[in-house]
Specification:
Blueprint lengths: L4 H7 L6 E4 L3 E5 L7 E7 L14 H17 L6 E4 L15 E5 L9
Antiparallel strand pairs: 1-2, 2-3, 3-5, 4-5
The chain binds adenosine monophosphate (AMP) and zinc ion.
């Protein structure tokens, strides 16, 4: 997608603090971190959000979560982390390219706001 912030980050047109990349996913530090670990896992394929995903996207959505688990393992935050996928403006979704937040490294409260 030409005019999508996260597509531009994946293509390297906008700088990011890259954490990890593989064939399907790209991971970078959130610019406004809410926890000691706060990274965003995005599929390289542009999908607007979970509400626009189809069964064709099942594998890539699973891969994003497995990438989150890998980063959590590497950062040794497996005693408590959270993956968050905001969907729609009322949830706070502000970038309309599907992304999984990985948050950890501190105590996380429940329920989230
Ligand atoms: P959401 O509110 O779920 O759509 O999440 C979007 C996230 O993207 C927010 O946590 C922002 O801080 C983050 N963000 C926005 N622009 C950038 C950027 N250029 N680099 C890294 N993270 C960003
Ligand atoms: Zn995109």
């Amino acid at each position: 997608m030409d005019n999508c912030l996260f597509c531009k980050i994946v293509r390297g047109e906008i700088p990011s603090k890259k954490v990890y990349e593989d064939e399907h996913t790209f991971v970078f530090e959130d610019i406004d971190p809410k926890a000691p670990t706060h990274v965003l896992i995005v599929p390289k394929k542009h999908i607007e959000g979970l509400n626009k995903a189809t069964s064709e996207d099942a594998e890539i959505i699973g891969r994003c979560h497995l990438t989150a688990a890998k980063i959590a393992r590497e950062r040794q935050i497996e005693d408590g982390y959270r993956t968050v996928l905001n969907v729609g403006p009322k949830s706070g979704q502000s970038v309309f390219h599907l992304h999984v937040h990985l948050l950890g490294g501190r105590d996380l409260r429940w329920p989230p706001g």
